[in-house]
Amino acid sequence: MKKLLSALSLAICTGLVLVSGNAMAEQTIGVQAATTPAIATARVNVSVVVQKVVVLRIGDANATVSAVTFSVGPNPAIAGAPGDSLAYAGTIPPIIGTTVATTNPTTSAGALTVGAWTNASAGASLSCSLSALSGATAFATGATAAGVPGTTDITVTSVAGAGNLQTPGATLAACGTSTSTIASRTTLGGTFTYGTSFTATDLAAGTYGNTVTYTATTL
């Protein structure tokens, strides 16, 4: 009895192996008379699976967040500043100017290299959003308000042309409301240049800002 069960188990296992092997490919047979062509066909499913990819660069091509910092103060700078009771023979109020510096990379014009690419058939959209920046009071919504610079006071300019990534809007006020387009399989480059349109003497002393997050979303 045990020998019979062992033989039966072996037969079943062998059958399963053969069935499994046949399931991985197709096999047919053609049988005809000697004067008739015999035909056998076998099919193979060949496919290419392409992952959807989108790439976005704002600033240096690394994991460090770039920073654009506008400094507002007397122009020309006061000799010895910062300091107290410094010699001053200028106007009241003093002439206040704005300078800009960019870190990662270090530039002096507030310009950041940008780039984008996607293989999504319908392309992608570029949007931006504002979130809290540590140690800073958030920009006012719209124009300068109560001494706080507003989102419309911070301008963002991109390079014109089909091969350049365009900003979602001309100012940070566009964040959350506007988008720009990233065409499918088109390499985009260019720069985003940040500037200001506020009146420096309208601003109260303090540190103001937001983290601007740009998001490329495939369509």
Structural description of this entry:
This protein is mainly β. It has one domain (54-218). It is built from one helix and nine strands, in the order αβββββββββ. The protein has one helix spanning 2-23; strands at 54-58, 67-74, 96-103, 111-118, 124-132, 154-158, 180-182, 191-196, 210-218. Strands 1-4-8-6 form a four-stranded antiparallel sheet, with no helix packed on it. The chain has a three-stranded antiparallel sheet with strand order 7-5-9, with no helix packed on it. The longest helix has 22 residues, at 2-23.
Question: Which features characterize this protein?
Answer:
single chain; 219 residues; mainly beta; four-stranded antiparallel β-sheet; three-stranded antiparallel β-sheet; 9 strands; 10% helix; 28% strand; disordered N terminus
Helix content: 10-25%
* Overall outline: rod-shaped
Biggest β-sheet strands, sense, barrel = 4 strands, antiparallel
Q: Strands across the major sheet, in which order?
A: 1-4-8-6
Structural class: mainly beta
Number of helices: 1
Mean pLDDT: 90
Report a brief summary of the structure.
With about 220 residues, the protein is mainly beta.
